[in-house]
Amino acid sequence: MRAYKQTLTLAAVAVLAGNISRAENWPQWRGPSFNGSTTEKKSPTRWTRTEGLAWTTPMPGTSGATPAVWNDHVFVTSTDEATKTCVAMALDRKTGRELWRVKGADAASKDDKSTFANPSPVTDGRHVWYFFGTGDLLCLDFKGKEVWKRNIQKDYGQFAFLWTFSTSPVLYDGRLYMQVLQRDKVVSGRGRKDGPNESYLLAFEPATGKELWRVTRLADAKEESLETFNTPTPHKGEGRNELLVAGGDCISGHDLKTGKELWRWGTWNPTRIGHWRLVPSPVAGDGIVLACAPKDAPIYAVKLGGTGELPNSSLAWQSYVQNSDNAAPSLNNRDISSDVPTPLFYEGRFYVLNGRKKLLISFDKTGKVFWSGQLPSKSDFETSPTASGGKIYAINHRGDVFVVQAGGDQFKLLHTVSMADPDENLIRPCVVPSHGQLFIRTGKNLYCVNGTE
Questions:
Q1: CATH class of 23-449
Q2: DSSP assignment, residue 297?
Q3: Could you tell me the residue ranges of all domains in the chain?
Q4: Which residues contact 198 (CB under 8 A, 6 or more apart)?
Q5: Per-residue pLDDT reduced to its tens digit, 63-120
Q6: CA separation, residue 430 to residues 32, 34, 37 (Å)
Q7: Fewer CB atoms inside 10 Å of the end CB: C or N, the chain?
């Protein structure tokens, strides 16, 4: 009898270990692989705002930041409406109970369209890093104790942005990376008056905040087209590791150890239009990286592995011909465009969410389109799609979540659910799939979804 019990125990341990191995953390904005997806095989398909939830936790204010999840911790960046500040928070993943709250910045916003709490946190399982549009960069341990803090504006000069600056810190291979791609001149009184307003890339020692390198990134863009509100993307492949950076009317790859530029392609803006600020981050997969030109302009697929200034022959394809000066091949599909959402790469396919047209498009590395589906949304999308368990998740400005089946030859909408109050708008955090659950941030609440199926 004792031997039988022991066998049962070992079997249970094996099953538990298998379940744990399939669970995956979501350590930063675009997930564990920097492409918006996880390898988990199960994730919720259906739920309501009251059914299939593990918990609901009220938020102290609005934010565009996507939560980070590590085992039993959920990390959240938020404004605090009561104190008019920005805060770094941690919740218990199992219960939603607030574990701690730390002030990260002394201000919450400078206009009514955005906040200083839009950048997403990043964690390595021991520490968590928060960045705010005020320039404050903060490292905390898992108990909420400050490890170090510095202010990027104080260290490198005032930001030169017309809009509220937002980029998320990225952790990869023992370094914390950031970018500040900004105007070269003072705008609306903002920017350095004691020296040049340079765009630059940064690498810090995560444990101490010590600068490892700072590299100026030059660009030929003009005025607002120099402003970039995305996040750099680390990529491993094509015989090297590199940091992919899109902004200033071009895309470039940089050495992770030194910041040195390895290659560059551009431009999607040959006439140098001056109001083409950039929001989507680059996403890589199957030997190419996508650069999304703004304002309904094309998406460009650049072949990875090149060096130096790349010619147009380095493009695998572009979604449509914009002008006669660009001789790259065309898909003749003007729907494949993204002004704000960053594309998703999942199980060998790219997915582009055209936020203005409410279209989700599936295609492979060659540009072959498998399907295009209309999402029944009454408002725009500015969040980026995520994927897990064979499903794609997208949330619009009003907090309506759409679940779409990944892969296949046809668009298939599986579920639609509203997660916000009627008065909520401009919802921007991505849906986070992690540990078999979904974490959905609206303006007022953070929901943890188990699902009803």
A1: mainly beta
A2: P
A3: 23-449
A4: 184, 216
A5: 999 999 999 999 999 999 999 999 999 999 999 999 999 999 999 998 878 899 999 9
A6: 14, 13, 11
A7: N
